[in-house]
């Protein structure tokens, strides 16, 4: 699978102190699951974040952030962040914190039988 290992390592380091982080390769990238819920990940050269749908419009106004359109249609509550959007530690932490905040209230995906 081809995804930016440097971004994945940066996320891995940032989440290292949290319990129950599970990494899963999927969708051509890697996802970091927290509390059995997808939280952040890397697809190609972008970080993918699951955020509150209420924060979605505000988030996509930030330079370097765009709606996730992995399937060809916008997925509200999911964003991609490019290099410009995470070029400083402060920006990087902003997106991680946004994803972690939503993770606390997000529903788990239903497992397929």
What does this structure look like?
The chain is of the alpha+beta class and about 110 residues long. It has a single domain, classed as Alpha-Beta Complex (Aspartate Aminotransferase, domain 1), CATH 3.90.1150.30. It contains three helices and six strands. It has a six-stranded antiparallel β-sheet with strand order 1-2-3-4-6-5, covered by helices on one side.
**How many separate helices?**
3
Number of strand elements: 6
From the alpha-carbon coordinates, what is the Rg to the nearest angstrom?
13 Å
> What's the CATH C level?
Alpha Beta
Elements, N to C (H/E): HEEEEHEEH
CATH fold title? Aspartate Aminotransferase, domain 1
CATH architecture: Alpha-Beta Complex
| Shape, per Cα inertia axes | globular
């Amino acid at each position: 699978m081809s995804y930016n290992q440097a971004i994945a390592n940066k996320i891995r380091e940032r989440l290292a102190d949290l319990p129950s982080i599970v990494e899963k390769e999927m969708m051509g990238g890697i996802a970091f699951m927290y509390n059995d819920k997808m939280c952040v990940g890397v697809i190609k050269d972008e970080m993918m974040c699951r955020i509150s749908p209420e924060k979605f419009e505000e988030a996509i106004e930030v330079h370097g952030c765009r709606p996730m359109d992995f399937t060809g249609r916008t997925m509200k509550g999911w964003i991609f962040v490019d290099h410009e959007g995470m070029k400083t530690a402060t920006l990087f932490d902003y997106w991680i914190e946004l994803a972690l905040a939503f993770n606390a209230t997000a529903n788990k995906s239903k497992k397929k039988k």
